[in-house]
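Q: My labmate handed me this sequence with no annotations at all. I'd like to see what the chain might look like in three dimensions before we decide whether it's worth expressing. Could you predict it?
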Amino acid sequence: MKAMQVNEAGHEPAIIVAELQKPKPGSDEILIQVRAAGVTPTELIWYPTTHTKSGTARIRAIPGHEFSGVIAAIGKDVHGFKVGDEVYGMNDWFANGATAEFCITRPVNIARKPASLSHEAAASVPIGALTAWQGLIDRAKLAPGERILIHGGAGAVGLYAVQMAHNLAAHVITTVSSQDIDFVKRLGADEAIDYKASRFEKEVRDVDVVFDAVGGDTLKRSWGVLRPGGRMITIAADGEGTTDQRVKDAFFIVEPNQVQLIEIAKRLDAGHLRVFVKTTVPLSEASAAYSGARTHKSGYGKIVIAVAA
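A: Here is what I predict for the chain of 309 residues:
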């Protein structure tokens, strides 16, 4: 099969094309013929891309951990799926990704593809929507009527966080650039703050939850806008290696979850969640997609690699 791999080139990892043996599923695994894979550019420099779970060096990892495709083969111990099923999902970060014609996954990582979405649209969903779900529902336990401040509301995760918080009947405040204000209000934001024009802490106070997708100084300034007993959630990469216990407690990394993927698909098909794809590129242009060399059709959502028709 044709696949794209991460080739370490100094401090700037590159994507290279490779011809690999098509993988065979183990007894509890599923082989996916990949139709499309979502792009997370920062994945190239993340720890799981360069290291195994045991901490040893990892080379030639296949990126792209969210995907949509068709089941091509199943292991003997797999139940609930069959060859030909259209599915979408997310692989464990230490597993090989889906920027390839085929990938191996496990049943707990996938669900039936939303019927209303193309494979390209479905491939853009899992990481962003699961991150928002796990941050707002599992960790923050956001309740109706609560006030939430979402940093980066127009980003690949933020746009789902805004929609989900709105659907939970929370009062949604988000920070974005000026050109994104109308967009996030259409998604359900009650208030949108231009972070370039004003400091959010001068306009917001006593919120119940902060959902931070930015990190750095934005996160530091956010503690002061929480009400006593308020909850901080952050997904910013600089939280992973922090020594600040407050940030350690607030930080999390998204994990695959079949039950949540099923519920997200229901909401997508019902029109309660909207999907946004910046642009779609062929597998041969994966390197440009990860490097940022590709121009975008829109300013929102993810770049998606169309692997097969």
